[in-house]
Here is the input.
Amino acid sequence: MGPAPRQSSDAVSGVREARPGDIERVAEIKVRNWADTYGPLVPSGVLGPFLDKDNAAAQIRELMRSPQILLLVGPGTGVVQGFALTYMARPPEPWLESLHVMREERGRGLGRQLMRETANRLLAAGYRSMSLGVIIGNDRAARFYERLGGVPMRVEAVGFADGVEHTVWRWPDLTALVKDPGLS
Here is the structure.
C-alpha cells in the first residue's frame, strides 16, 4: 500500500471522532511517525514492536472500545492525515498518549486543530487540565507544545524503554488552549 494522497492546506477542515473504518489509517500514521520521529531517539530493539502495523491496528481497535478513550482524526473529510489519542480517565488528569500528523502535512494547522478539539472535548467531559510526554530529543514536538502554552513539568523515564526519558508537558487550564488565538 502506498502513501495516501497529499491534501492541500485548505483541505484541513476540522476534526472528528474516529470510526472503525479509520483504524488502519491511524495505525499507518502511528507506525510511520514512530519510525521517522523515534528511530534516532529510541534503541532499535525497543522500537521494533512499535513498527508493526497489524499490532498497532489491533491496539487501536481495542482502545476504541473504551468510553474513556478519546480518539480524534483529521481532517474531518477526505483521507485522514493525523490523529490525537487521549486517555481521559488516567489519574491525576487526562493524558494525551499520541498526537501524530503525517510528515507531509505538518505545519498546515492539523495538529493545532487536533489539540484544540481534544481540549474542547475534555472540557465538555468535566476535565480542566491535561498532560503528555515528549521523548527527549524530539525538539520539534517540544517547540510545538510550548507554542500552544504547554508547561514543561519534569523529566522522567518512559515505561516502554530502559534508558529513554520524556519531558512531561502540562496544560493546567485547558480553556487557555481552546481560546488561544494562535490556534486559529
Summary: Helices lie at 23-38, 44-47, 53-63, 110-124, 139-147, 174-179. The CA atoms of residues 119 and 175 lie 7 Å apart. The two ends are 34 Å apart (CA to CA). The chain has one domain: 13-183.
